[in-house]
Amino acid sequence: MTYSDAELFWIHDNHKRQRVEMHAEFVDLWNRPDVSLSNLSSLCKRKGWMTGRTGCFVKGQTPQNKGKKMPFHPNSARTQFKKGNVPHTYRGPGHERVDQKDGYVVMVVAEVNPHTGAATRQVLKHRYLWEQVNGPVPEGHRLKCLDGDKTNTDPSNWEAVPMALAPRLNGRFGRGYDTAPADLKPVILATAKLEHAVREARKGRK
User: Fold this and answer.
1) Interatomic CA distance for residues 164 and 197, integer angstroms
2) What is the tens place of the pLDDT at every residue in 130-186?
3) How buried is 35 (Cβ within 10 angstroms: 0-12 exposed, 13-18 middle, 19+ buried)?
């Protein structure tokens, strides 16, 4: 696609206008029906003749539809939420589910969500129930499932243990606590606690 010097001068002089408007005037003024809108836009991009518009609202700019109500249309009205309508995905207080990734029970409680302001929030059931009995989990600790069944959320089945104790129970260098027989679990836990206490005592003497 070629352009005369006069045409290029005109395009450069008008490159900050709306592309559609500029193209229509260019075709009419210079009798160039062979030049499409995309041709003209590509030329401006190659030359670096940008409009200067980013497509973003600038500070203080008023949206064109501010204060305007969406025109009524029966098709859109049919799918709009009605006042008081409850979405089919709503899960009220008391609803429970098992997290597919970690296997913990997640429960919905009737407490204001501090992040969204919603009337309910989701909590880990075992932690929620444990804290109702024992208070907040101590800093630097986590709750350990004693019988290996994470769906058993009874507070007596969970114990607050130091974070550093977890690798001694499971993981690459652990003793396979979660999969160990029930009669061995107390022994494994007691051994891990003893090793952790010895390590902490040595650190304290340094």
Assistant:
1) 11
2) 999 999 999 999 999 999 899 999 999 999 999 988 888 887 777 888 888 999 999
3) middle
Tens of pLDDT, residue by residue over 47-101, are: 999 988 888 888 888 888 888 887 888 888 888 878 877 777 888 899 999 998 8
**99: how many CB neighbours lie within 10 A of its CB?**
12
Please, what is the Cα angle at 116 between 163 and 139, to 5 degrees? 20
Q: List 123's β-bridge partners, or say none.
A: 107
What's the first-to-final CA gap in the chain, in angstroms?
79
Mapping DSSP to helix (H, G, I), strand (E, B) and coil, where does residue 84 land? coil
Check residue 103 and give left, alpha or beta (phi > 0: left; psi -120 to 50: alpha). left
